[in-house]
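Researcher: Let's continue the batch. This sequence belongs to DDE Tnp4 domain-containing protein, and it's 199 residues. Same format as the previous ones, please.
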Amino acid sequence: MQRVPNCWGFINGTIRPICRPSVEQEDYYSGHKRVHCVKYQSVITPDGITVSELVAFEGRKHDAGMFRESGFYQQLETKARLPNGNNFVIYGDQAYGIRELLLCPFPGHGINEDQQNFNTSMSTLRVTVEWSFSKLVAEFAFLDFKKNQKLLLQNVEAMYKTATILTNCHSCLYGNQTSTFFNIEPVPLEIYLNVNNNN
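Model: Same format as before. Here are the structure tokens for DDE Tnp4 domain-containing protein:
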């Protein structure tokens, strides 16, 4: 299988259904999923830790639009380029478009065998993002109960991000499907939380 040795993470968007809001309904309606929702964009590392979760976006927003508005690529340019000229990349689906620090599958049906093998190999790895989304909802099932996700009455975004941090903590303690798949243990909880045991 073809792999990318300098790939450090996988990016994808996910939707969380919400109760239909009384205002701005069209903004939060995803015609693709046919549900009112909030969208999040996350980067997952091979140890199953969510290392980046951008602000919540309206349900109708496309993944590429979220990525562009977030300014995340500008962060990559300052963090993923090393002084020796080496670069580290993340991998996403075709919605993001290929860039120097962001790879995606080769498009179209006219690709050659090597390109197809690359697409197949990386698709197998990218599914780990979905595992992380599934783990979060499994640990905090209330996030999946849309009738109680009321945008105007609750801080839906803060609840989701808090659940993400706590899910990361759980992964540090007990591992996760992604870390098992890549055979990489998550960092100890003390390091993740930046706790100094000497104090």
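Researcher: Any comment?
Model: Helices lie at 63-70, 72-79, 113-126, 128-139, 156-174, 177-182, 189-192.
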